[in-house]
Design brief:
It is a single chain. By secondary structure, the chain is an alpha+beta fold. About 50% of the residues lie in helices and about 15% in strands. Strands 4, 5, 6, 7, 8 and 9 form a six-stranded antiparallel β-sheet that branches. Strands 3-2-10 form a three-stranded antiparallel β-sheet, covered by helices on one side. The N and C termini lie far apart (about 135 Å).
């Protein structure tokens, strides 16, 4: 009998448990809701850390990564023709019409990304990656992205890190299931109002992925399928050779966060002890019971008769320890803030974000995160774009070009400024030509320079094609010829009229009359 998806999921869970335990420890010190404790439900109370630096560091770094991956008002990718296709065509540069068409297609894809609200799911995905090191994202048929956290899926990889098998576990209400799946629901599932649904994806001998869904050990009819481009993407923050799951940024600084939490707790407890006001009265003081009542009922500024030697105020005596604890907490907070880029300038979320701000952001991310930013950017966006282009072609939103003819190129790191650099190069070229003699200008292709500049500014429709320019020139020539013909006719008519007027104004000689010369 073939192994069910649930049985396979239970066997794969044992390999996932160590990573899940560390993920819960990291979430407990940062954002507990990202990975709740085992058995948690909506009625249970989440753990509360003694400090908020972990949550601020996670949200800050995730926001910086998200803005760097999807800059406001700028596409994070470009469409290009592979070099082998350029070599076969005999030209390493693209025609202006082809480049303009690619830029227009990029605009359609960018609009679909904005419509599908990828920024929100990307921000949440990055928080999962920073805290737990793992996250599974699925692109839905409507081009939106759905996320699975680490306790909702299992994954298996080969030694190269390529995904070979994925199983997801989700609990749904029986009413949410389609009609062909409700027949597999048990009575206990209806009483608990939740039924486990397993989705099993596994690679086959052809290199594609087989998929089916299962409820209570039975496969759902019409759920079998095959994917050539997998919509599931099991992401890792840091890939370790030979491991199926990744490790997060918080795990790299887990001792620092534990120390921060312990120091914060010590300071809170010490401050609570130092804020206590306790009055001690000598046991055999004169009028002991009456004196205690006077002190208990006395208001601020009241006068009480008694012996000052019988009364003493208890004070907190460990001020030096509190100062040492505060100094160490400040040092640890400063180091963690630097590791999570909390003290550096951020890129403004606006349509007028300058190139200098993006350059500074990418340089900091590359240098501080040790190349993880570029690797994560490629792993996440390359799979997203490949699947998005395929689905947009199927829906008729993009031209159906061959897959080997056009490929998406992710603009990560300093490459994100590639289009702006193209505009700067055009400006430098025009400044260089300004000092050249006129006989050099015919050797320059000004239409190519103009196309590169406007394509870099995301204004491809503002440049006319060569055919449009020729048609416009022909129209201008025809208009000029028509105007010239009209002027010639007017001049001819004017001369004829003038001669007629002169002939009428001159006196005509009578018959037989001689004119004197």
């Amino acid at each position: 009998m073939a192994e069910t998806a649930r049985a396979r999921y239970e066997s794969m869970k044992r390999k996932r448990d160590p990573y899940l335990t560390r993920g819960r420890e990291c979430a407990e010190l940062t954002i507990p809701a990202l990975m709740p404790p085992e058995g948690h439900n909506e009625f249970a109370i989440l753990p509360e850390p003694y400090q908020g630096l972990g949550a601020r560091a996670t949200v800050s770094l995730a926001s910086r990564l998200m803005i760097a991956m999807y800059p406001p008002g700028k596409p994070s990718f470009k469409l290009d023709v592979p070099p082998e296709q350029k070599m076969q065509s005999g030209s390493l540069s693209l025609a202006n019409e082809v480049e303009q068409g690619l830029v227009l297609s990029e605009g359609l894809i960018h609009q679909e990304i904005e419509r599908s609200q990828w920024r929100r799911s990307t921000n949440m995905c990055l928080q999962y990656l920073l805290v737990t090191g793992n996250c599974l994202e699925v692109m839905q048929p409507d081009n939106t992205i759905r996320l699975f956290r680490l306790d909702q899926y299992c994954v298996s990889r080969d030694m190269q890190g390529e995904v070979k098998e994925i199983i997801t576990e989700e609990y749904l209400s029986p009413e949410q299931l389609p009609k062909n799946a409700r027949e597999f629901v048990k009575e206990d599932d209806f009483s608990q109002n939740r039924v486990p649904l397993y989705t099993h994806i596994k690679i086959n001998d052809k290199g594609t992925f087989d998929v089916y869904q299962e409820i209570n050990g039975k496969k759902i009819p019409d759920s079998r399928g095959e994917f050539e481009t997998l919509p599931y993407n099991a992401l890792r923050y840091t890939a370790v050779i030979g491991e199926d799951y990744g490790r997060g940024k918080i795990e790299e600084h887990l001792p620092d966060f534990r120390c921060l939490d312990a120091l914060s707790k010590s300071l809170i407890d010490g401050a609570a002890m130092a804020s206590r006001n306790v009055t001690m009265i000598r046991p055999n003081a004169a009028g002991g019971l009456n004196l205690r009542r006077k002190f208990a009922k006395a208001d601020n500024g009241d006068i009480i008769v008694g012996n000052p030697e019988d009364i003493s105020m208890l004070q907190f005596q460990n001020n030096n320890g509190m100062q040492l604890c505060a100094a160490e907490l400040e040092r640890q907070s400063r180091e963690v803030s630097q590791a999570f880029l909390m003290g550096a300038a951020t890129v403004r979320d606006s349509e007028r974000t300058t190139a200098f701000e993006v350059r500074r952001m990418t340089e900091e991310l590359e240098s501080t995160l040790g190349g993880v930013y570029s690797q994560l950017n490629q792993d996440m966006q390359q799979a997203r774009l490949t699947r998005l282009i395929l689905q947009m072609k199927r829906m008729g939103q993009l031209p159906d070009w061959p897959e080997d003819l056009v490929e998406p190129v992710i603009l990560s790191g300093m490459e994100a400024l590639g289009r702006e650099q193209a505009v700067n190069k055009v400006q430098i070229a025009l400044q260089f030509l300004s000092g050249m003699p006129p006989e050099i200008l015919p050797y320059v292709k000004f239409d190519s320079l103009l196309s590169k500049a406007f394509n870099g500014l995301d204004l491809p429709d503002a440049v006319r094609s060569q055919q449009e320019v020729q048609e416009m020139q022909q129209q201008q020539m025809q208009q000029q010829m028509a105007m010239a013909a009209g002027q010639t006719a007017a001049q001819t008519a004017g001369q004829a009229g003038a001669e007629a007027v002169m002939s009428q104004a001159m006196p005509q000689p009578q018959q037989g009359e001689m004119t004197n010369e």
